[in-house]
């Protein structure tokens, strides 16, 4: 972070400043952002009471509802914990309904962040998604591939820091030439 609380975003030929983040001047004293943060924290605290798959779905529904209510902010409060919880919701032992809900939340987050925000936090959001592809059910893979296609591929050169992991994540889709997802991958 630079001294004026803006994030640096690499441009094609210059670096420009953008007022994002919880410490940016735009969010520092915004009571709506504080309320947003409190709502996300409340939702994250409810994860402690998750014991079975129905609880996971309820948690994800509430998290998505909270995030949708504050679309005007191009930042996700407590993003490290949010990313961790979403990753936990992609555990292969959980049913596909939980995975689908988690991917819905990921999709919303990436729409909110946009290309710049995703590029800035690429490792954070990718750490749960990339390992999941190998274990994803057939019914969920199209959603995951669509997410990669819509949000990751447009990053082009910005995807370079995670390119090796991205390629390794997609390799299981190339195992069988006659497989359902071979052409899409």
TrEMBL record:
Domain DOP1 N-terminal: 30-185
Region (Disordered): 1-26
GO BP: any one term: Golgi to endosome transport
Keyword Cell inner membrane: no
Superkingdom of origin organism: Eukaryota
Keywords: Protein transport, Transport
GO cellular component: cytosol; endosome; trans-Golgi network
Entries under InterPro entries matching the protein: DOP1 (IPR040314), DOP1_N (IPR007249)
Family designation: Belongs to the DOP1 family.
Protein's UniProt name: DOP1 N-terminal domain-containing protein
């Amino acid at each position: 972070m630079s001294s004026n609380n803006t994030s640096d975003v690499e441009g094609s030929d210059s670096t420009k400043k953008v007022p994002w983040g919880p410490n940016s001047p735009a969010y520092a004293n915004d009571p709506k952002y504080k309320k947003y943060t409190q709502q996300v924290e409340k939702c994250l605290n409810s994860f402690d009471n998750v014991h079975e798959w129905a609880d996971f779905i309820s948690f994800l529904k509430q998290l998505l509802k909270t995030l949708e209510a504050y679309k005007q902010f191009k930042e996700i409060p407590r993003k490290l914990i949010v990313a961790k919880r979403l990753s936990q919701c992609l555990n292969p032992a959980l049913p596909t309904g939980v995975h689908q809900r988690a991917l819905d939340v990921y999709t919303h987050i990436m729409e909110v962040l946009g290309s710049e925000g995703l590029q800035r936090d690429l490792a954070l959001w990718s750490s749960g998604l990339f390992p999941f592809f190998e274990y994803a059910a057939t019914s969920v893979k199209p959603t995951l591939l669509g997410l990669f296609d819509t949000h990751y591929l447009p990053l082009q050169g910005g995807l370079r820091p995670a390119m090796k992991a991205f390629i390794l994540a997609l390799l299981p889709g190339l195992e069988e030439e006659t497989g359902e997802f071979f052409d899409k991958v």
